Amino acid sequence: MKRALVTGGSGGIGAAICRRLASDGHHVFIHANRNADKAEALAAEIRGAGGSAEAVAFDVTDAAATAAALEAIGADAPLQILVNNAGIHDDAVFPGMRADQWQRVIDVSLNGFFNVTQPLTMPMIRTRWGRIITISSVAAITGNRGQTNYAAAKGALHSASKSLAQELASRGITVNVVAPGIIDTAMSEEAFDAEAIARIVPMKRAGKPEEVADLVGFLASPQAAYITGQVISINGGMI
Ligand code: NDP
């Protein structure tokens, strides 16, 4: 059993990843920001099904609060699986985008990646085994109108992960990115109706959170030991 942290575990994709890692036998820290009740409920559900999980809550943009929470999480034993999944979007065409929309999206996705990942790397290195998996987006690969902030933040996660993969490769730690297309969650429901999905996605359906979770579960497994520094798309053929 490894100890795993999934940021944004209170959200649609994050919850599916928590369930998958728990069913693979890991102890899962289910992270939330504002919806701590959802993380608590999911932890109770997983424990009820015989798994091992607990809820944690902090804002990944608050470096001090994040560091304190991570210290408490790692007090008993180091985390060996980290899934950076927390993210937001705040869309606007660029000429009309406000500075705070730009800043906030970068802050949660990119600075949040630093705030969570950096304190965990040295303890993970000492165990000589680790998995760092970050959830990005197809928008980082193709670009997307109205999402310059989101695509910039997610694209930077690709570069950061490829660099970190090189630093950690000799320590038994893999670092990869999963780039989903349109996945059936509250986040995508606002943006895409069925007609739009049929037009944009060759498979003519949204992906399921569980399909993303299965890919993350594989990347977190011992079988994926030789995969590192990769951006892996899961998007029904969009690119
Ligand atoms: P949700 O909106 O359902 O979940 C977002 C999660 O991020 C929530 O758990 C939320 O916590 C957390 N979060 C937001 N802001 C903060 C913050 N400041 N500090 C800590 N946590 C925060 O989104 P999805 O499940 O749909 O998306 C998950 C990831 O997948 C995101 O990174 C997203 O960009 C990416 N993605 C999603 C796609 C989709 O179609 N759904 C497509 C491609 C990528 P809380 O609710 O507790 O505040």
UniProtKB/TrEMBL annotation:
Q: Which UniProt keywords apply?
A: Oxidoreductase
Which residue numbers delimit the Ketoreductase domain?
Answer: 2-186
What NCBIfam families would the database entry show?
A: PRK05653.1-5, PRK12826.1-2
Please state which protein family the record places this protein in: Belongs to the short-chain dehydrogenases/reductases (SDR) family.
Name this protein carries in UniProt? 3-oxoacyl-[acyl-carrier protein] reductase
Species classification: Bacteria, Pseudomonadati, Pseudomonadota, Betaproteobacteria, Rhodocyclales
Any single GO molecular-function term of the entry would be: oxidoreductase activity
Please name the PANTHER family in this protein's record: 3-OXOACYL-(ACYL-CARRIER-PROTEIN) REDUCTASE, 3-OXOACYL-[ACYL-CARRIER-PROTEIN] REDUCTASE FABG
List the Gene3D superfamilies hit by this protein, alphabetically.
Answer: NAD(P)-binding Rossmann-like Domain
